[in-house]
Amino acid sequence: MPKTHFAYRITALILAALILTSSVSFAVDMHFCKGELKSISFWGKAPSCHEQAAAKITCPHHRKLMAEKGEAALEKSNCCDNHTVQVEADHDRQMQTATELELNPSLQYFLFAYAVSLLPAEACTDSPAPYLNYKPPLIARDIPVLTQSFLL
């Protein structure tokens, strides 16, 4: 088994990841508190500061609000917001068929002349092929008869 180089493997993995991300739709949900990114989620909704505050107050802004005004102020404050970035694959893009393509007449003439120039000169003549009257050489020995066994 041939040994592949490390750079070859890394390049293959990067290209596979590129193909996967370009052909799959995905969404990233980010939670911002006072303009700072607090949490990020690739699967589902990012947990907000309020959800995290139920277990433990982690946001310094919310900690100050809790100390100054109590839990009621925490629910009324609107310092947090969620942003969702959705990247969709381009599966629904309509492809043009050959009949929908509009070619100007000069391009059509050029393509026709180019296609005709690629044809060999013999294809345009109606002469019969020279190998049609070829007779194969006679076989010196009849090999199938020599290899068969006959029951007598």
Commentary on this structure:
The protein has 152 residues and is α+β, with helices and mostly antiparallel strands. It has a domain at 26-87. Helices cover 39% and strands 14% of the residues. The chain has six helices and three strands; from the N terminus they run H-E-E-H-H-H-E-H-H. Strands 2-1-3 form a three-stranded antiparallel beta sheet, with no helix packed on it. Strand 1 and strand 2 form a beta hairpin. The longest helix has 18 residues, at 6-23. The radius of gyration is 38 Å and the shape is elongated. InterPro entries: DUF8199, HYC_CC_PP. It comes from Phaeodactylibacter xiamenensis.
Strand line-up across the major sheet: 2-1-3
Average of pLDDT: 76
User: Count of DSSP helices?
Assistant: 6
What level of helicity do the residues show? 25-40%
| SSE topology string | HEEHHHEHH
Low-confidence stretches: none
State the major sheet: 3 strands, antiparallel
Organism: Phaeodactylibacter xiamenensis
Pfam families: DUF8199
Keywords: Signal
Signal peptide: 1-27
Question: Could you give a quick summary of the protein structure above?
Answer:
It holds the Pfam family DUF8199. This protein has about 150 residues and is of the alpha+beta class. The protein is built from 6 helices and 3 strands; from the N terminus they run H-E-E-H-H-H-E-H-H.
Q: Which SSEs are present, and which pair or pack?
A:
Elements: H1 6-23, E1 26-33, E2 36-41, H2 49-55, H3 60-69, H4 71-76, E3 80-87, H5 105-118, H6 143-147
Antiparallel strand pairs: 1-2, 1-3
